Amino acid sequence: FIADIGPRPSPKHTVDRADNDGNYEPGNCRWATRLEQNQNKSNNRRLTFNGETRILAEWARVLGVGERTLQRRPGLGWSVERTLTAPVRAIP
């Protein structure tokens, strides 16, 4: 197994499948952190804006916006562009 994916980079890394629909087999396994594994889940919502595709949680981190805010906006009929660029209203 180690011959296929190499030694564990750190104690924070565990085995992950690059393709979640594939098997745990050579060519589809890698070492990944918890964050990397969470970003690789098949149920993540992906948004593409300006040619860049990220999962919703990553867009929230990059933009400094709450993840729940970005989750709600498309349900209100907002476009991807508006979802990712509209400022967050301050609550008085």
What's the overall geometry?
elongated
> Helices and strands, in N-to-C order?
HEEHEEHHH
**Sequence stretches where pLDDT stays below 50 over 5 or more residues:** none
Oligomer: single chain
Beta-sheet strand percentage? 15-25%
Distance between the termini: 56 Å
Question: Which structural class is indicated by helix and strand composition?
Answer: alpha+beta
Q: For the report, how would you describe the main beta sheet?
A: 2 strands, antiparallel
Mean pLDDT: 90
Residue share in helix: 25-40%
- Rg, rounded, reads 17 Å
What is the total tally of β strands? 4
Strand order of the largest sheet: 1-2
Report on the architecture of this protein:
By secondary structure, the protein is an alpha+beta fold. The protein has helices at residues 2-5, 34-39, 56-63, 67-75, 80-85; strands spanning 14-17, 29-32, 46-49, 52-55. Helices cover 36% and strands 17% of the residues. Strands 1-2 form a two-stranded antiparallel ribbon. Strands 3-4 form a two-stranded antiparallel ribbon. The protein is elongated.
